Amino acid sequence: MRFFSDNAAPACPAVLAALSTANVVDTAYDGDGWSKQLDERVSALFGTPVRALWVPSGTAANCLALAAMCPPHGAIICHHDAHIQNDECGAPEFYTHGAKLLLADGVGAKLTPDTIRAVLDATRNDVHQVQPHVISITNATEYGRVYTPADVAAISDLAKARGLSLHMDGARFANAVAHIGCSPADVTWRAGVDALSFGFIKNGGMVAELLVFFRAELADATLYRRKRAGMLLSKGRYLAAQVLAMLKDDIWLDNARAANAGAALLATAAGDRLIHPVEANEVFLRVTPQEAASLRALGFDFYDWGPGEARLVISWNQQAGDIRPLAEAIAAL
Amino acid sequence: MRFFSDNAAPACPAVLAALSTANVVDTAYDGDGWSKQLDERVSALFGTPVRALWVPSGTAANCLALAAMCPPHGAIICHHDAHIQNDECGAPEFYTHGAKLLLADGVGAKLTPDTIRAVLDATRNDVHQVQPHVISITNATEYGRVYTPADVAAISDLAKARGLSLHMDGARFANAVAHIGCSPADVTWRAGVDALSFGFIKNGGMVAELLVFFRAELADATLYRRKRAGMLLSKGRYLAAQVLAMLKDDIWLDNARAANAGAALLATAAGDRLIHPVEANEVFLRVTPQEAASLRALGFDFYDWGPGEARLVISWNQQAGDIRPLAEAIAAL
Amino acid sequence: MRFFSDNAAPACPAVLAALSTANVVDTAYDGDGWSKQLDERVSALFGTPVRALWVPSGTAANCLALAAMCPPHGAIICHHDAHIQNDECGAPEFYTHGAKLLLADGVGAKLTPDTIRAVLDATRNDVHQVQPHVISITNATEYGRVYTPADVAAISDLAKARGLSLHMDGARFANAVAHIGCSPADVTWRAGVDALSFGFIKNGGMVAELLVFFRAELADATLYRRKRAGMLLSKGRYLAAQVLAMLKDDIWLDNARAANAGAALLATAAGDRLIHPVEANEVFLRVTPQEAASLRALGFDFYDWGPGEARLVISWNQQAGDIRPLAEAIAAL
Amino acid sequence: MRFFSDNAAPACPAVLAALSTANVVDTAYDGDGWSKQLDERVSALFGTPVRALWVPSGTAANCLALAAMCPPHGAIICHHDAHIQNDECGAPEFYTHGAKLLLADGVGAKLTPDTIRAVLDATRNDVHQVQPHVISITNATEYGRVYTPADVAAISDLAKARGLSLHMDGARFANAVAHIGCSPADVTWRAGVDALSFGFIKNGGMVAELLVFFRAELADATLYRRKRAGMLLSKGRYLAAQVLAMLKDDIWLDNARAANAGAALLATAAGDRLIHPVEANEVFLRVTPQEAASLRALGFDFYDWGPGEARLVISWNQQAGDIRPLAEAIAAL
User: Fold this and answer.
1) Per-residue pLDDT tens over the stretch B37-80
2) I need a labelling partner for D43 at 20 to 30 A (CA). Which of A234, C154, D13, D52 fits?
């Protein structure tokens, strides 16, 4: 069984059904009936007026958000393990036309006001250095850690004091919200987030992510940037339909809860082997090469993550019954 | 009935079926079983080794192709009515980092060696001017005209003589091939094309286009550029599956033939009203505002295309029975 | 004698003297005593508060101005014979990160509200097309024609009505002002210009041009862009000193008057041969190849400018005595 | 007396004299007699055929070199204290269209094969990460340390083994060569350097630096990039003349030797206070705030460089007589 990545999982039934329903003639690009519902539907979810744009990838959502808030001669502060730094092949630099990522520390890939301040204070305020314009945090982080509303608010306070915008890479936003048990508003705009990459694909979607602007005016130029990037797909209704289907009846939350629950099962089994507390759907274990091999021999696949470390990611469709054998195998190591 | 755009049409049944079939666990990005078939399958179709990359939009296909062949300080020669010039919000400039589009003339948006030469000869060969690196032609053109293999070869001869690459925007490539009745190889690499944007979406696809490199080495850096643009979708198997489904049993050709046939029906009805010969699935008519209104009153929707002109586009799923009433209405004007 | 280009001329004595005077220890970049005088000195010249930045080339001045007023997804309207379109190797696209130049007509490379409106009206107001943000005019134009204050104001009225900024490429601004006999303010900010590339090099400077922002806030980000472009030279005092030297005692105007006077001498001699009225320091003549050869045989050098056309440019240091033999030779053709 | 920066120093007499000599009519841009001598003159200096381009700033030289060797989707390895990382406001990102700087360690801002290897080995070889294309080293470094030919060759061996190009930022190249006492060839192309930013401005020049390509083909596209960046000044002869004047009779070496000698004087006086060995013209001292204040009270100006640290830079024109009082004051602390 595969625990490589939640990107490997299939799309959930509601998404497939939505594609069939949307498979009718409608206006091209984002002029269709589904796309036109997004602003209102997502505003309702967040309890505040937002602008919501579908895009086909999380990288696109992240980078359009960053480009909306950072000029080419600016900088973005993020964790040195952030996806935008390590796994997007320089897409932030492409979309922002060369802004610089300034790298900060933090346990479990979580930034803190202190680690951000260290970067800010190391930057001279003169034209010889790029000046920070944005802080980008990932929730849940690349190590499956979750920023609470209080965590986010503390960072936002610093951001506001220094005139910076705040972006949340929410490739696993649903997992974070499911963990906290809060309203999605609490951990975003109410805590000071300006733009959210709201992930659906890892959580049971197929090819649709959502870029949510809590500062609505940021969407205006982004509409041009999205088109200019080739991201305004001509049959956009199929993307909007995926998002709407997963928002309906809280499927996005149910899927995330299921994945989190699977990870929690593994966490219990792993005990002292855990490298990071398990808060979302990722489990990082200390395992010897021999132990890793023995798990693989039992049919469990996962990535090595540095020497003596394994990463296991649980997907929305992996049931407790599927996961229990792995949990037992880990406990038995 | 809508004749606005083939982008308004639904996806064809084979595409929907393929999405269901692909809806299983597999490796993320382009490591899955479908994506890995593309090079071989498309090479077989063209009868020569190619590199074939899925992308979610035609703009992405065009611009990745152009970026592979034109440096930032270079220029691309295209028709002044080309989609890359008028309808992509500067995406070629974004992807190439600022290359310039040099605009040439030609009846029906078809370039000719003469009109290209006029642009080339107006460019001084010094560092004060951007130097042309690529010619981009659209087949079928924005006015539904088709470049034959001989047309393409004549342009390619000029391109080779001047050291230029040749790109074909094939958003409606299937319609062109169906019209000519040739092998897809004849009108591409055998006629000197280096890179093809092979369109599926307008022709019954959902969110997948294909970028085909006949000079395979161009794909190497493009793999990075695709990722960097946020175009390497994490569940790429759903894109590859769409393409493979339409290539199977020549569905791509059948769909295009159907659309072309519908356009031919209208062309016959239109007679002297035709602004351009109808070779693919687009029909451009001379109509007075009153005539246009009368057609709309009968329930036929389409775009005005300049004063006294209407554009009607036939989609893969519009049957002769659907179109005949419009043909009769046009004939009766 | 050379009439190729005013770029071929030496620097004027005041400039060389200023370099010697500035050849002392002072703060690097633009922290020196000369650079710090610029805002005030140039504000006094224009009779309004401006921000004035030295740069080492006219291309830099133009492109920093354009980048300050046009986003990457925007467009700049200019004449199809404009220097920024034809002679800067895509520098506007480089500095703006890929904005598009939309080309307008006009006799003698002079735009008019009508020719600009034609471009504006051909642009659809949707995200598929780049939207104009700036109009750029060249004064004096590439054909030596001059925009009067009324000409500029008419264009500015249109710009304001459409929400566009107005840039003036003043590589030969001094020649234009000298021709009109107005205050430099009259033909710039009082007529609605937002940013001026104020040329010194063709007019007796060595390596310093001035970028003048009449909307002062545009300078803020430009300071970063200038540095980021490698244009914030480390010994900037030598550039500021050149500019200040030429502003002193109206040397910039005297130099321009001298060059204009030389051109006027030739214009009188040329009579019907003139292709454009001579208003600044450039003369465009109709000459047969034989006539051109005969002038060259007499030792006069100049560029052919299209078939049967010659361009002669008079520099600040070419005296009437130097020019009269050419005038006589032209008259004798 | 000022010890802030060698950028604060005036130009040396030979440079001023050269400007006067060059102050005649000649062809614009780089078509003049001085510019045309550069390739040959610099090839002779280095004992190998090179292409040598003047540019007005060291940032331009660095970034044009990097852009010639690194694609937008690539990366450049440099020291975390490198000028290109910290003091050019993102110019490398601008010129390369968004390449990423990967930061390596090393005492005294000197990279070593080991510290470079650490960065290389941390980079996965897949399309999700930017791949290194260039190593950039600064000689002398930002802390006045010098790479010997053996140091450079060791890095070049690694570069070649990994398929990387090697750039040397030689803003203080003359000081490094003067320190080593080698031929400029020994520490550049013979040790594997592909491109050198050969600094003149800090060493007695005014507004001219040299970009030297030891792989001549890199110059071809760079000629376009230089123009496109607005760096092809229209009166280029004044830049070429500066460079030629300083190469004549080894003035460049004499100036550097003088500055190095001054620094050596201070180094002897400083003894244990030295933070870095003094090899070029920079001296970094441990001083308390009180000690720094006492030096300033005596009329010596310099930058604080982190807490308890001072940076003193000696310029070409600071004589032993000028420096001795400072040396004595330091010794007396």
Assistant:
1) 999 999 999 999 999 999 999 999 999 999 999 999 999 999 99
2) D13
What single-letter DSSP state applies at residue A202? Answer: G
Structure tokens at C170: 């003043």
Query: Which residue of B86, B87, B98 is in closest CB contact with C98?
Result: B98
Within the 70-99 window of chain B, which residues sit less than 8 Å (CB to CB) from chain D? 71-73, 97
Q: Does B29 touch chain A (CB under 8 A)?
A: yes
Partners of A3 on chain B (C-beta within 8 Å) are none
Pair of tokens at residue D201: 């401005």
A1-40 pLDDT, tens per residue? 889 999 999 999 999 999 999 999 999 999 999 999 999 9
Q: Beta-carbon neighbour count of residue C161 at 10 Å?
A: 11
Cβ of C240 under 8 Å from any chain D Cβ? Answer: no
The predicted pLDDT at position D183 comes to 97
Return the pLDDT at A289.
95
In terms of C-beta density within 10 A (0-12 exposed, 13-18 middle, 19 or more buried), how is residue B236 classed? buried
* Strands C195-198 and C209-213, sheet pairing: antiparallel
Q: Chains with ≥3 Cβ pairs under 8 A against A?
A: B, C, D
Residue A306: pLDDT over 90 = no
Alpha helices per DSSP H over chain A: 13-21, 38-46, 58-69, 83-86, 91-96, 113-121, 149-162, 173-180, 218-228, 237-247, 251-270, 289-297, 320-331
Q: Are strands B282-286 and B74-79 parallel, antiparallel or unpaired?
A: unpaired
Minimal C-alpha gap between D121 and chain C (Å):
30
Q: Which of C127, C128, C225 sits opposite A73 (nearest CB)?
A: C225
Sheet architecture: strand order including B165-170: B51-55, B209-213, B195-198, B165-170, B131-138, B74-79, B100-104
pLDDT at D1 over 90: no
CB-based contact (8 Å) between C41 and chain D? no
Q: Which residues pair with A209 in a beta bridge?
A: A55
In this predicted complex, what is the ipTM?
A: 0.97
Measure in Å the smallest separation between the Cα of D72 and chain B Cα atoms. Answer: 9
Distances (CA, A) of A80 to A84, A110, A120, A274, D104: 9, 10, 15, 21, 14
Cα–Cα nearest to C162, from C65, C71, C75: C75
Is the Cβ pair B235, A207 closer than 8 Å? yes
Name the strand (E) or helix (H) holding B239.
helix B237-247
> In C, which residues are within 8 Å of B96 by CB distance?
98
Q: Do B97 and C98 touch (CB under 8 A)?
A: yes
A59 lies within 8 A of chain B by CB: yes
Per DSSP, the three-state class of B138 is strand
pLDDT at position B1 over 90: no
Neighbour count for residue B40 (Cβ, 10 Å): 12
D138: part of which helix (H) or strand (E)? strand D131-138
- Using the predicted structure, report yes or no on whether residue B306 has a pLDDT greater than 90: no
| Residue D129 to chain B, least CA–CA distance (Å) | 8
Q: Which of C243, C286, C279, C283 is nearest to C266 (CA)?
A: C283
Residue in chain B nearest D228 by alpha carbon: B73
- Closest residue to B224, CB basis, from A60, A89, A201: A89
The band of B252, judged by pLDDT with boundaries at 50, 70 and 90, is very high
**Looking at the predicted structure, is the pLDDT value of residue D163 above 90?**
yes
Residue contact D93–A93, C-beta within 8 A:
yes
Q: Which two tokens stand for residue D281?
A: 């013209």
* C77, containing H or E segment: strand C74-79
Ranges of residues in chain C with a pLDDT under 50 are none
Give the global pTM.
0.97
Q: Residue C211: phi, psi to the nearest 5?
A: -105, 120
Q: What are phi and psi of C29, to 5 degrees?
A: 60, -120
